[in-house]
């Protein structure tokens, strides 16, 4: 025992002398550098060295376990904590969460002497004496764990230039606090501090002093860059630590009172806190709440822009197998900014309206076929305004033009914000964001970042559409190349038939020639029928020009042709004059009715009707067949060379829309898988019908054609 006492005496004395010498050398160094003022970091280091020397002197003179030495140790730890905090303050952006962690450790240090006094006053009471000793050990362990976490985090976020100079002092501090953690852990478990470990603390401090001297030799301060990830990690670590400390402290209090009730209360406490942790920690809503509160109270800015930009580029620019489609990634890239769990993308069509382009985690949103009002595109294209829908619903938003916001968006209670995607003063789309898990209002920082992200997403959409147009042009080139082969086959057939015709004049009476001619003609007819089947419907008709026509006569003519192979039900309607090209309209209706027949079962009729809608005539083709998915209607139905049929070219619907648009009309589609489809052709009404279009005795459209 005497040997350990002597070792402690000399080692603590040596540590006190060495740290005092380093402090004196630091002051003398400042005196030599008269033109250079000492930095706050150097002043904090000097204070920490003096406090360490004072603690070592108290431990040498009174013993390492004396109450005065314990108080001096708390002052030493406080001074080194101030040194670390001064390095944190030199960071370019200091998160408030780091300051909060330091304040927590200061409170822990302030509680150490209070617990020591309370422990000394209750040494005669066994249970209170044991409780006071355990509380003192726990407070010291809590501090060293927190200090080690801060030292590690500071080193991990320092820049490359500063990290080399920080390595020595932080290594010395880590060694000092790791030794303290082991010492107090052994003391907590053994109910007393071992004398040998207490004496060896002085030896450790002698070894650590040269590291502090090398740190003091550095001129200037430290520049640190703290990341939010480190801040969240620090908060998480201290939350876990606080959780454990609370459990241990309450359990110790219950054990101090003893009895069977206390034992049962301990069990209930452990079970209750464990259940609360299992419920809260995996919860998405709890994590979202934690992030919002931490960002609001601990950071100067809501967003870590570097991290947000990296996440944005990874979301939007990661194609390949297993990833979401491009338009869904567009929604997700915007939704991640505000932590919205779902969203919708509305894209403009060729006729100047908006339609649903894609959904992201929002299958219940009821979006009509025409998803905008007459002024929606113009308003967002000219203003680029981000609309917060809750403020619009409550009447607080008086700047947004209510007429430009579709009613279905306002009525959709889960819709939270509308973000326009504007590219070079043209609206590339609208993203409708759903409510985040933790509701909040959009502030200026949200609006700035969403506006910037919207412009970037608009450029991605514009590029995707350019690539799609280029791909269609390439497909047309390929189609033209294939047409060259077809024309070559036709040329061969014409040559073969010309040869037969020229020989027929000389050998018409030859029975063998006639037999061979018949075989040649049959073979040629078969080949020509094959070519006709391949080409039917894909050659654009030049037409007779747009003029006033009798729509009923055109519809009746197409139905008469199609009804020979499938039941077609047509509703009666008044005579209607449309401005259209009769040949092209007949071709359009032929495409659409044939598609409806192909999609229907043998016993499922196709319905055709005519009606008026304002200054527009409407021809509807309805079937109850297989139907189409919303994704197919939005992205593939009117695209060339894409077909739902196994043997289709994908030109019919594409050509039908082009022909209708050339006649100043439009085609609208509604379809559900397994329920059927509705195609509506809208064409402008005419004032009268030319006399040669309708005979005097032409019947009305039959009620049923089969």
From TrEMBL:
Its EC number is 2.7.13.3. Residues 485-687 form the Histidine kinase domain. Keywords: ATP-binding, Kinase, Membrane, Nucleotide-binding, Phosphoprotein, Transferase, Transmembrane, Transmembrane helix, Two-component regulatory system. Pfam families: GAF, HATPase_c. The keyword Glycosyltransferase does not apply. It catalyses: ATP + protein L-histidine = ADP + protein N-phospho-L-histidine. One of its GO terms (molecular function) is kinase activity. The chain crosses the membrane at residues 12-31, 43-62, 100-121, 133-154, 166-186, 198-215, 235-254, 260-281. InterPro entries: GAF, GAF-like_dom_sf, HATPase_C_sf, HATPase_dom, His_kinase_dom, HisK_dim/P_dom, HisK_dim/P_sf, Sig_transdc_His_kin-like_C. Gene3D superfamilies: 3.30.450.40, Histidine kinase-like ATPase, C-terminal domain (3.30.565.10). The keyword Membrane applies. NCBIfam families: PEP_his_kin. This is histidine kinase.
């Amino acid at each position: 025992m005497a040997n350990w006492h002597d070792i402690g005496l000399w080692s603590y004395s040596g540590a006190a002398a060495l740290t005092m010498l380093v402090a004196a050398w630091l002051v003398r160094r400042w005196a030599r550098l008269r033109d250079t003022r000492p930095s706050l970091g150097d002043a904090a280091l000097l204070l920490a060295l003096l406090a360490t020397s004072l603690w070592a002197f108290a431990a040498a003179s009174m013993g390492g376990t004396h109450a005065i030495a314990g108080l001096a140790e708390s002052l030493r730890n406080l001074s080194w904590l101030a040194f670390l905090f001064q390095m944190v303050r030199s960071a370019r952006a200091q998160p408030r969460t780091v300051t909060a962690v330091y304040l927590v450790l200061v409170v822990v240090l302030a509680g150490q002497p209070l617990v020591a006094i309370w422990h000394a006053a209750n040494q005669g009471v066994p249970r209170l004496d044991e409780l006071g000793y355990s509380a003192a050990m726990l407070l010291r362990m809590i501090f060293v764990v927190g200090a080690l976490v801060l030292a590690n985090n500071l080193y991990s976020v320092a820049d490359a230039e500063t990290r080399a100079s920080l390595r020595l002092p932080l290594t010395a501090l880590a060694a000092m606090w790791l030794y303290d953690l082991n010492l107090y852990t052994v003391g907590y478990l053994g109910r007393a501090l071992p004398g040998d470990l207490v004496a060896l603390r002085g030896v450790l401090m002698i070894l650590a002093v040269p590291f502090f001297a090398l740190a003091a030799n550095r001129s200037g301060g430290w520049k640190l860059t703290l990341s939010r990830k480190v801040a969240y990690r620090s908060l998480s670590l201290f939350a876990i630590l606080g959780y454990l400390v609370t459990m241990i402290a309450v359990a110790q209090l219950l054990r101090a009172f003893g009895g069977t009730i206390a034992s049962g209360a301990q069990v209930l406490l452990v079970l209750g806190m464990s259940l609360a942790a299992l419920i809260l920690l995996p919860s998405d809503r709890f994590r979202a709440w934690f992030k919002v509160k931490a960002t609001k109270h601990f950071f100067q800015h809501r967003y870590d822009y570097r991290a947000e930009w990296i996440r944005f580029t990874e979301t939007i620019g990661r194609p390949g197998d297993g990833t979401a489609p491009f338009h869904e990634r567009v929604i997700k890239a915007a939704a991640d900014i505000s932590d919205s769990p779902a969203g919708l993308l509305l894209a403009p069509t060729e006729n100047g309206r908006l339609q649903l382009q894609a959904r992201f985690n929002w299958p219940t949103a009821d979006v009509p076929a025409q998803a905008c009002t007459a002024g929606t595109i113009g308003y967002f294209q000219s203003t680029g305004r981000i609309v917060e829908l809750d403020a619009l619903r409550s009447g607080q938003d008086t700047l947004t033009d209510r007429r430009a916001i579709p009613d279905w968006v306002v009525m959709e209670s889960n819709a939270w914000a509308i973000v326009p995607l504007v590219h070079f003063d043209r609206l590339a789309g609208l993203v409708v964001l759903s409510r985040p898990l933790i509701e909040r209002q959009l502030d200026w920082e949200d609006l700035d970042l969403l506006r910037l992200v919207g412009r970037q997403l608009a450029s991605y959409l514009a590029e995707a559409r350019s690539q799609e147009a280029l791909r269609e042009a390439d497909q047309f080139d390929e189609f033209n190349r294939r047409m060259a082969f077809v024309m070559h086959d036709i040329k061969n057939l014409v040559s073969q038939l010309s040869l037969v015709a020229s020989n027929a004049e000389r050998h018409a009476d030859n029975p063998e020639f006639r037999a061979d001619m018949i075989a040649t003609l049959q073979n040629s007819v078969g080949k020509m029928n094959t070519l006709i089947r391949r080409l039917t419907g894909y050659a654009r008709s030049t037409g007779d020009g747009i003029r006033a026509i009798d729509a009923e006569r055109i519809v009746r003519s197409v139905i008469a042709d199609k009804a020979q192979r499938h039941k077609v039900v047509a509703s009666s309607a008044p005579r209607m004059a449309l401005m259209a090209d009769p040949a092209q309209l007949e071709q359009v209706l032929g495409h659409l009715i044939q598609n409806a027949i192909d999609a229907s079962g043998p016993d499922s009729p196709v319905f055709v009707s005519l009606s008026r809608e304002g200054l527009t005539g409407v021809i509807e083709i309805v079937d109850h067949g297989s139907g189409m998915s919303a994704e197919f209607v939005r992205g593939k139905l009117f695209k060339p060379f894409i077909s739902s049929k196994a043997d289709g070219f994908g030109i019919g619907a594409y050509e039908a829309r082009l022909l209708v648009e050339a006649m100043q009309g439009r085609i609208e589609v509604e379809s559900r898988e397994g329920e059927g489809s509705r195609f509506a052709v809208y064409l402008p009404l005419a004032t009268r019908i030319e006399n040669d279009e309708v005979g005097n005795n032409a019947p009305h459209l039959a009620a049923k054609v089969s």
